[in-house]
Amino acid sequence: MSTVAREVGTNGHAVAAAPITVLLVEDHRVLAESFAAVLKQDPGLALVGIAGTSASAVALVDRLKPDVVVMDIRLPDGSGIEAATAIKANRKDTGIIFLTAYDNDETLWMAMGAGAAAFLPKSEAPDAVVEAIKRVAAGEMMLEPGKIQDAIAWHGARRRYEADRAAM
Q: What is the spatial distance between Cα 107 and Cα 124, in angstroms, rounded to a whole number?
């Protein structure tokens, strides 16, 4: 159950707070339109744009200044990881949510390094994605501790493997 934040106006009546602005970055049109339809159903969210490439995502964030970016990892012109890194360099307050089919330790490690506040599989229920947007906009991190530990362990094992190879 979601609630829209309320403020009291000068006339004493409740007024809706500004909606959370969202930029969606997804190169598959059917998925983009499906996610857009879900986001538009929630009065607490305002979909301000849809990008299909890394470059357009970075440009739209600079122009539209969304509160949250919901982004795919793999895009036709590069990775969502690279786009997120560029976005966070210029707009540290923009929340990044990765919505991806690549739910593995390596990808999570890279997403964390790019400043992700949430990392969700594309199979996630639409309500869970909406809830993640609201929580990330409120400043929360939505990375499962167990998954973070797995990603850290993966990174440590990779570093040891590379050090062993270099020593040969």
A: 17
